[in-house]
Write a structure and sequence with these properties.
mainly alpha, 6 helices
């Protein structure tokens, strides 16, 4: 579980991402997703910057839960809506492939002990994958989705996304 300082850093980074989303003209679920990107990125960087096994053990469950619930919520709600629209179906298929890669890597990391010599390199791979994924979504996919789906649909997707994410969190 993150310390108070780590929680504050995570929330601050999340708030900054949400503001960035607003400046880009994103609304609803996309602003929420950007906020979550910021929050988990702060935790990822905290783990990556530490060689302390206790820090890994303390933060990994939160990182794993946040990444897993976020991706499953996206796939089950947001990208499901993308699949219904001819302008975004290819984006959905691409995202879903990346989500499977992410899920697989999370599973492999989860099987390792925190003192395993492979843990840091696999975690670095995860950070790179997440950073690539976030840059792609925030730079291309979310703006394209906002244009294709429209503001009303983007606002409508937020509640089901949050419900799906919560349901996944209860299972993880």
């Amino acid at each position: 579980m993150p310390t108070q300082m780590e929680k504050a850093a995570s929330k601050t980074m999340g708030a900054a991402k949400m503001v960035k989303g607003s400046v880009k003209g994103l609304e609803g679920v996309f602003k929420t997703l950007m906020e979550e990107h910021g929050e988990v990125s702060a935790l990822l960087l905290r783990v990556k910057s530490s060689t302390d096994i206790e820090t890994r053990a303390r933060l990994w469950p939160t990182v794993r839960m946040e990444l897993t619930s976020h991706e499953m919520g996206e796939v089950g709600v947001v990208y499901q809506a993308f699949q219904q629209n001819p302008d975004t179906i290819e984006l959905a298929l691409h995202h879903n492939q990346e989500a499977q890669e992410l899920s697989s890597l999370i599973g492999r990391i989860n099987e390792l002990s925190f003192d395993d010599p492979m843990w840091p390199s696999m975690f670095d791979e995860l950070v790179e994958l997440v950073q690539h994924h976030v840059a792609e979504e925030e730079g291309e996919i979310f703006p394209a989705g906002q244009r294709a789906l429209g503001a009303a649909k983007v606002m409508e997707l937020e509640e089901p996304y949050l419900a799906k994410k919560k349901a996944v969190m209860e299972q993880v």
